[in-house]
Amino acid sequence: MPIADxxxxxxxxxxxxxFFKRPFRPSGNAAATTTSSSSMSHGHPHPNGDGSxxxxxxxxxSVARSLLPTRRRLKLDPCNKLYFPCxxxxxxxxxxxxxxxxxxxxxxxFQTTAPKSCFMRPPxxxxxxxxSIIATVFKFVEVxxxxxxxxxxxxxxxxxxxxxxxxxxxxxxxxxxxxxxxxVAIEQILRVVFLDPERSTPAMEKLKRQLADADAAxxxxxxxxxxxxxxIIGEGLVIDEWKERRERYLARQQVEGLDSA
Length: 261
Fold this sequence. Notes:
Elements: H1 2-21, H2 28-41, H3 55-67, E1 74-77, E2 81-85, E3 91-100, E4 105-112, E5 118-121, E6 124-127, E7 132-140, E8 158-166, H4 175-179, E9 185-195, H5 202-222, E10 231-232, E11 238-239, H6 241-260
Parallel strand pairs: 2-9
Antiparallel strand pairs: 1-3, 3-7, 4-6, 4-8, 5-7, 8-9, 10-11
């Protein structure tokens, strides 16, 4: 009897160990759950039954796009600062050149953290491909407290330039940026730097040149276009300047002849 019991126990142990040595084969639902979790853990979600990609894939792609560097449409000069002459209690000016470096029409717009003391001319515009413009920025410089030097301080006022790709030449309206918020790109955030107007520095000399160019461009826009053709008075009446001069000359000769007689 003891020997028989030993044999039966030995055979039962072998069956148990043989069961644990078999490969584990999960059921269909368990296998699908394991495969899905494994694929998601590796960042490769499988498409749904209808061929559509799960929502997690779109969220990952949106995050990836947000990490990509923004492609600039505008070239700014200066690129990240606005220089102002330090004249407390006065309204001073700065200038920045904005160039469209893209192959499409681009609208740009200014924004500032101090709209009560700053304004821009123009506040926005639409540039053709390759076109550039010099914008003038006006700022009132407040008198500092305790006779502090503004040149040595960092101003809290900042400016932001935004861009928007448009379909073609059109009139600029600020509502363009509200209607297409998703397509608006922040080109640059500019901080204010004060310069000593009595000290000749490269930045100060460059500011003077840009302000002179901005004034010249403004005057050229104010002038009416030159009319090289004949003068037209009324409808269909053309005055020949040479003929008019000749008639006045002959009339003057007749008057002089009568006086001499």
